[in-house]
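Re: Re: ligand-bound prediction request (bumping)

Still looking for help on this. To restate: I need the protein modeled with LLP bound, output as structure tokens. Inputs repeated here so nobody has to scroll up.
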Amino acid sequence: MSDKALLNPYLESSDGILYIDGVSSLELAEKFDTPLYVLVENRIRENYRRLYQTLRRYYEKVRIYYSAKANTNLSVLKILEGEGSCIDAVSPGEVFLALKAGFTPDRILFTGTSVRDDELKFLVESEVTINVDSLSQLRRLLKFHVPEIISVRVNPEIGAGHHEHCITAGRNSKFGIWEEDVVEAYRLAREAGVSRFGIHMHIGSGILTVEPFILAAEKLLSIAHRIRRELDVKFEFIDLGGGLGVPYRPEEKPLDLDLYAERLLGLFLKRVSEYDLGEPWLFIEPGRYIVCDAGVLLTRVNTIKVTPYRKFLGVDAGFNTLIRPAMYGSYHPIVVANKMDWRNEETYDVAGPICESGDLLARDRRLPRISEGDLLAVLNAGAYGFSMSSQYNSRPRCGEVLVKDGRYALIRRRENLNSLLSGQEVPSWLR
Ligand code: LLP
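Reply:
Sorry for the wait, this slipped through. Here it is.
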């Protein structure tokens, strides 16, 4: 199977050229230079609506908290604001951006880890809802402010994810609070005068099967039951986290969304009624699912190097631009934007410009015969692409473009050499 199997309806080939929602990828690369992230507005909206509508078939009180870390471009946030989404934020920076994009504080849930006191103060001043990740964080918060509402991130002791780094619950995880301490957390909060409550978990990222979500939800709901019984706490919301996976390899099967919704909500509704949990809102926090396949990274082939062992395509995007292959060994589908009709007949390693041997976007990738100057499109780059990019090797970060119905606009200018100086000071003795 070829990577082309992962093209979605907004990525079409016409006369051998890749069009992104009606815009020629060659034109975008020419106009804005490469590397370049291209985001498809309609696909973001479609992903959001598909998910929301599927969940809503089972329960009225559902809210989606888009996990901003996947992509915090202001335009992406504004699109989702318009769709009625809420925001899962993990840093003061994400709260700041979400507020700038027009989200009101009541639509922002902060779930940080290793949170500082000054950050807690910022959150309190911003009036967002805080989801605490440790007893220490809760105690430090309550010392200077008693919020009306608080949520506790539970470690449901079941984690899952596409890579060890992306499993965020279970024995070895730094995230969440273990059951006994969860009871203590709600006790502390209630005694301090907190009057409204939520409960939360997030087990990991890039999960393509339904089972882990169900097992973890079962545990979370049993803990909610215990809190309800022992402390008579009523939950305004139960947040089951994000983690909904997206296929990156042509042979991977997508998460069965209907099954996910049917089983997860089925369990939720059953336990909520059995455990007398009232009528809590159900929150989920997807990041990847909303933006991943709405983004393409365009990168140009600078150089071709053939050694006795390998054929390298040297492109202009390295792990400074897209770190997922280097960091997690992730597979990203790649198509040749100016040779869409050509047959795959060569095997290449696709290497970036960073001076490290791990700087490969792909190993042993079957592609058409490539010439220098060809344009590659790395698919599924909308989530954790730009947001994880860096200036490593002193390479300015790339730009981002938004397309919609054949129109396009630059939504982030590429940095330039002066960006490398930004914030730097030279001490007097070196001047
Ligand atoms: N909620 C919380 C509290 C999270 O920590 C995360 C992701 C999400 C929701 C959203 O997860 P998603 O639905 O996107 O899977 N950089 C990695 C992914 C790390 C995700 C960290 N937390 C990657 O590129 O695969």
